[in-house]
Design goal:
The chain is mainly β. The protein has no helices and 28 strands. The protein has strands at 6-8, 15-17, 20-22, 29-31, 38-40, 43-45, 52-54, 61-63, 66-68, 75-77, 84-86, 89-91, 98-100, 107-109, 112-114, 121-123, 130-137, 144-147, 152-161, 166-169, 173-184, 189-192, 195-204, 211-214, 218-227, 234-236, 241-250, 257-259. The strands form two sheets. It has a 16-stranded parallel sheet that branches. Strands 1-4-7-10-13-16-18-20-22-24-26-28 form a twelve-stranded parallel sheet, with no helix packed on it.
Length: 261
C-alpha cells in the first residue's frame, strides 16, 4: 500500500470533495491507524488494488463516490475498521467489489456494485457490519460470499450472477430482510454449516436450486417466494434443518421441496 495516492493516518481528519484520481498503480485511498475523514462525490478510475483500503480501526466516511475499473479489489475494509459507505458505486473491479476481513464492521448503505470480476461482496474472518439497500449486478462469480462472519443485510438485490447468488459458509450467522435474488447461473442461496434468517425474500430464474442447505445448516425463513428455478425449489440435506413460515415454492424444474440425508 506504500504507493497509495492519498494516505490518511492518526490525527488527521481531511475532507475530500469532488476530487478525481486516475491511472495510479497503487491504491487511490489508504486510511490506517484509526484515521478519520471524509471522501465525498469523488471518482477513482483505473487505480491499483485495492482501490480503497480502510484498516487499523479507521472510520473514514465515503459518500457519493465512484470506484471504476480498478485492477483488483474495489474496497477493502480490515482490522476492526468501521467506515460509513453511503450511496457509492463500484464499477467493473478486476476482482471482488468489497472485501471485509479481520473483524471489520462497516455501515454500508445504497452501494451499487456492477460487473465485478470476482465476488460482489466477500465477508470473512469474523467480520460483521450492516448493509442496506445494496445491489450487486452481473458478478462474474458468486454475488455475495460470507464465511465465519455475521453481517446483517436489509434490501439486498443480486442479479445476473455467473455463479451462485449468495453463499454462507464456515459457521456464518447472517440475517437478511427483503432479500431479492434473480437470474443466477448457480444456486440462489447456499447455506453450508451456517445459520441464516430471512424475513421477506424472493428467488427466481436461477439455473440450479433456489435454496440449498448442507452440512448441518440452519434456516429460518418467513414470507419468502421461490419460483421458476431450474433445480429444486428448496433442498435440505446433510442433517440440515429449516423453519419455514409463509414460504411459497412454485414452478421448480425438479422438486419444489426435497429433504434428504
Amino acid at each position: 500500500f506504500a504507493a497509495a495516492a492519498v494516505v490518511v493516518r492518526t490525527g488527521a481528519d481531511p475532507q475530500f470533495t469532488d476530487c478525481t484520481i486516475v491511472d495510479t498503480e497503487g491504491s487511490a485511498v489508504l486510511a490506517a491507524e484509526r484515521a478519520q475523514g471524509a471522501v465525498r462525490d469523488c471518482r477513482l478510475t483505473r487505480v491499483g488494488s485495492p482501490a480503497v483500503v480502510v484498516e487499523e480501526r479507521s472510520t473514514l466516511r465515503f459518500t457519493g463516490t465512484t470506484v471504476a475499473e480498478s485492477s483488483g479489489v474495489g474496497m477493502l475494509v480490515a482490522s476492526q475498521s468501521t467506515p460509513l459507505v453511503e450511496n457509492c458505486r463500484i464499477e467493473s473491479p478486476g476482482a471482488q467489489g468489497v472485501v471485509l476481513m479481520q473483524q471489520a464492521e462497516p455501515e454500508i448503505r445504497g452501494l451499487q456494485i456492477d460487473k465485478p470480476a470476482g465476488y460482489g461482496v466477500h465477508v470473512l474472518e469474523r467480520s460483521g457490519g450492516t448493509f442496506g439497500e445494496c445491489t450487486v449486478s452481473a458478478p462474474q462469480d458468486v454475488g455475495v460470499w460470507i464465511a465465519d462472519s455475521s453481517p446483517a443485510f436489509a434490501d439486498l438485490c443480486v442479479n445476473d450472477a455467473v455463479g451462485k447468488a449468495v453463499v454462507v459458509t464456515e459457521n456464518g450467522k447472517v440475517s437478511f430482510r427483503e432479500l431479492n435474488l434473480g437470474r443466477a447461473g448457480g444456486t440462489a442461496l447456499e447455506v453450508r454449516g451456517s445459520s441464516v434468517t430471512i424475513n421477506d425474500g424472493s428467488m427466481s430464474g436461477t439455473d440450479a436450486d433456489g435454496m440449498l442447505l448442507l452440512d448441518k445448516a440452519s434456516l429460518e425463513a418467513e414470507d419468502v417466494v421461490v419460483s421458476g428455478v431450474a433445480g429444486n425449489g428448496i433442498r435440505i440435506s446433510e442433517h440440515s434443518s429449516a423453519d419455514l413460515r409463509s414460504v411459497t415454492v412454485s414452478d421448480s424444474g425438479e422438486t419444489n421441496v426435497l429433504v434428504s440425508d
